[in-house]
Amino acid sequence: MYKTALIDLDKLNEECGVFGIFARDDLDVSEMTYFGLYSLQHRGQESTGIAIADGTTIKHYKDRGLVSEVFEENRLEELKGGNIAIGHVRYPAGGDTSILNAQPLVIRYKKGYLALAHNGNLTNADQLRIQLEETGAVFQTSTDSEVIANLIARDIDQGLEIAIKNTVSRLKGAYALVLMTEDTLIAIRDPYGMRPLALGQIGDSYVVASESCAFDVVDAEFIRDIKPGEIIIITRDGLKSIQTPTPLKSALCIFEFVYFARTDSVIDGVSVYAARKEAGKILAAEHPVEADLVIGVPDSGTTAALGYAEGSGIPFGEGLIKNRYVGRTFISPGQSMRERGVRIKLNTLKKVVKGKRIVMIDDSIVRGTTSKKIVEMLRMAGAREVHMRISSPPVRFPCYFGIDTPSKDQLIGASYSVDEICRIIGTDSLEYLSMDGLLKTVESSGCDFCLGCFSGEYPVEME
After folding, report:
1. pLDDT tens series, the chain, 463 aa
2. Does a structural domain hold residue 338?
3. Is residue 262 situated within a structural domain?
4. Helix/strand/coil for 427
5. Which H helix or E strand runs over 198?
6. What DSSP character marks residue 96?
7. Total number of domains constituting the chain
8. Is 294 part of any domain?
């Protein structure tokens, strides 16, 4: 039976995080990649993998589990010795948990080895797969990543750089890629910049990662975000940048700032922490309420709750405590345990909320099941009133670009009005941040954003 993670049962989930390092100094790239992936664990908890290149070959290991579970000391020791590494953490879409789909994907072809780790989703992957199969390609996985690897291998006789440029010209959708041959590290961001990808440096060595927070743990200096449509090629000779054609407007996923990214990351010039706190302040101005205490749903709602408290003048407090030791707990969807999932993860501070009018801040409402249970918990703890404020607009549409989104009929925002949702989850009032308010939180970025899950308007045409 397919198992689902207890944590974040009612959230949109980012599917992947990627990390890569080219050491031109005396660095332990396997250890660096381990810690880099550790800091990106929030982007994927189902499987992880590391591949290492030493100039002549590529060795790798991947398995289901968290980074700390998969790479115990002995396993990491087996990956020592190279100077280039890439790593991946994965959250599967639907029931797709096959170990074959864990990454990095490592293939051997006529010119040698290629390893690839991918965050995102190609909207034309099925068409490309059919075209490749018609010319004799055989696929071992169901991932977009193997499609990309096959395209590169087809044109490799023209040279690695041309093969990559030809491949990128055929891809549609969202992708942040790190690739590796025996002696080269490559990073690629899609032309719309939908998935984040950053470049850092440690002395003369280079690092790439889905988020800047991964640089801090390996003592790397953040250089810049990789540009939409940019290909970065790193060898012993240094770094080369190739800019491929891009549309007039970029389309970074705005949900990175709402929920996906770690709070201490900076993406395309915007501090995630600052954006979330500003969302709370704007939410307080747009939807004030008379109350005694502002609380956040930990951890994703906490920063916005601080902003709401500051903007409204209502004191901030901890009304909900998160169990930090839940770990990687799995339960079957059909079991009665699922009903207790929220209580295992969260508990109320009864002395804090009893008799008070509470403003509860969260980043989003997806299905509504978790929100309803948290409201019930606060009522049982003695809260006099519960007013819910959401630091983003209603999620009304699915995402097709690498986010694990329920189908539209499972999105409570797609089927019910705000007033109806308020009654369903049992709050005294419910209000969402406006689209204009959300865009104000990231206006310093200098880029444009994908708002598809809120508006239904997508930057890339679906095939």
Report:
1. 233 344 455 677 667 999 999 999 889 999 999 999 999 999 999 999 999 999 999 999 999 999 999 998 789 999 998 999 999 999 865 446 678 889 999 999 888 999 999 999 999 999 999 999 998 888 888 888 999 999 999 999 999 999 999 999 999 999 999 999 999 999 999 999 999 999 999 999 999 999 999 999 999 999 999 999 999 999 999 999 999 999 999 999 999 999 999 999 999 999 999 999 999 999 999 999 999 999 999 988 999 999 999 999 999 999 999 887 665 444 334 445 545 667 778 899 999 999 999 999 999 999 898 999 999 999 999 999 999 999 999 999 988 887 767 678 889 999 999 999 999 999 999 999 999 999 999 999 989 999 999 999 999 876 6
2. yes
3. no
4. coil
5. strand 198-202
6. -
7. 2
8. yes
Closest CA to 387 of 281, 313, 454, 293: 293
Distance CA 431, CA 292 (A): 18
Token digits for 44? 């994927």
Backbone angles phi and psi of 78, in degrees to 5 = -70, -15
Tokens of 23: 């050491």
Q: Are residues 317 and 357 in the same domain?
A: yes
Beta strand 4-5 with 16-22 is: unpaired
State the CB neighbour count (10 A cutoff) for residue 111: 15
User: In this structure, what token pair is assigned to residue 201?
Assistant: 């440096």
Query: Please, which residues bridge with residue 202 across strands?
Result: 205
pTM (two decimals): 0.92
Q: Which of 279, 254, 283, 258 is nearest to 268 (CA)?
A: 254
Which two structure tokens, joined as six digits, stand for 262?
């770690």
Domain that holds residue 79: 4-248
| Torsion sign, CA atoms 36, 38, 40, 45 | positive
Q: What is the C-alpha separation between 427 and 424, in angstroms, rounded?
A: 8
In this structure, the answer to whether residues 230 and 295 fall within a common structural domain is no
Angle subtended at Cα 411 by Cα 303 and Cα 300, rounded to the nearest 5 degrees? 15
Helix (H, G, I), strand (E, B) or coil at 62: strand
Rounded (5°) CA angle 272-276-277? 115
For residue 299, cis peptide bond before it (omega within 30 degrees of 0): yes
Distance CA 336, CA 269 (A): 45
Q: For residues 366, 2, 123 and 160, what is the CA-based torsion angle, rounded to 10 degrees?
A: 130
Give me the torsion for CA of 331, 337, 341, 342, rounded to 10°.
170
Both 286 and 185 in a single domain? no
User: 422 an active-site residue?
Assistant: no
Contact (CB, 8 A) for 321 and 347: yes
